């Protein structure tokens, strides 16, 4: 038996933003970066291998980003001393916005989860099976008065609106059916969605690990 906890990631992100606002931070939600802003500067450049190379020539440095409010369409510039690329599956598109020659470093992958009526899972206990027919882990857990079952792990293209396939849903239903009673029928499904560790969209699987720095 393994003890675990659950987290509502959307609430966590909102809490972080509201806490920052309480400490006088200017927050901008629902915005997307459309351009990396740079300016010439004499600085040290850092290669992909994280080795320092001193140069006396002006080096373009990141000083902010041009962003678009996706609710209003308004564009504006955010200036910053430090820019962090924490964009999950969109990591490569931001890196290549900075430098078009940057190679891709991640393989997006989708995980499908299904929601079943709550009577398929105890209120305080779930089950994990690492021995499925194709080697993927399968589980079902209590979640918000329902039963959460998953997951799949398939390579994909990055998109704002991913959608599950019927084959992926059937895989989950077939793998958990031997553990559950009454027998699961397609009509028992409450909801199907895509996520990784509770966050909507895709996750990234790094080909190899290295740090990528851009002068700022």
UniProtKB/TrEMBL annotation:
Cofactor field? FAD
**One GO molecular function term?**
glycerol-3-phosphate dehydrogenase (quinone) activity
**Which EC class heads this enzyme's classification?**
oxidoreductase
Query: Domain FAD dependent oxidoreductase: where?
Result: 8-184
Q: What is its EC number?
A: 1.1.5.3
Q: What are the record's GO terms for cellular component? A: mitochondrion
A Gene Ontology biological process in which this protein takes part is: glycerol-3-phosphate metabolic process
Q: Which Pfam families match?
A: DAO
- Which UniProt keywords are listed? FAD, Flavoprotein, Oxidoreductase
Query: What InterPro entries does this protein's entry cite?
Result: FAD-dep_OxRdtase, FAD/NAD-bd_sf, G3P_DH_FAD-dep
What is the superkingdom listed in this entry's lineage?
Eukaryota
Tell me the protein family, please. Answer: Belongs to the FAD-dependent glycerol-3-phosphate dehydrogenase family.
Q: What is this protein called?
A: glycerol-3-phosphate dehydrogenase
Tell me what organism the protein belongs to: Schistosoma curassoni
């Amino acid at each position: 038996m393994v003890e675990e906890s659950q987290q509502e990631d959307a609430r966590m992100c909102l809490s972080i933003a509201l806490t920052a606002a309480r400490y006088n931070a200017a927050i901008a939600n629902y915005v997307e970066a459309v351009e990396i802003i740079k300016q010439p500067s004499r600085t040290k450049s850092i290669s992909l291998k994280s080795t320092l190379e001193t140069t006396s020539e002006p080096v373009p440095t990141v000083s902010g980003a041009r962003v678009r409010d996706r609710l209003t369409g308004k564009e504006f510039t955010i200036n910053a001393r430090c820019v962090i690329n924490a964009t999950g599956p969109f990591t490569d598109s931001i890196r290549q916005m900075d430098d078009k020659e940057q190679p891709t470093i991640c393989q997006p992958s989708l995980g499908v989860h299904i929601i079943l009526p709550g009577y398929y899972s105890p209120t305080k206990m779930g089950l994990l099976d690492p021995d499925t027919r194709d080697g993927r882990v399968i589980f079902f857990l209590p979640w918000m008065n329902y039963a959460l079952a998953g997951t799949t792990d398939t390579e994909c293209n990055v998109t704002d609106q991913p959608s599950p396939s019927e084959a992926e849903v059937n895989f989950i239903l077939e793998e958990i059916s031997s553990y559950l009673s009454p027998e699961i029928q397609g009509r028992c499904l409450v909801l199907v969605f895509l996520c990784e560790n509770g966050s909507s969209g895709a996750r990234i699987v790094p080909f190899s690990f290295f740090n990528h720095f851009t002068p700022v």
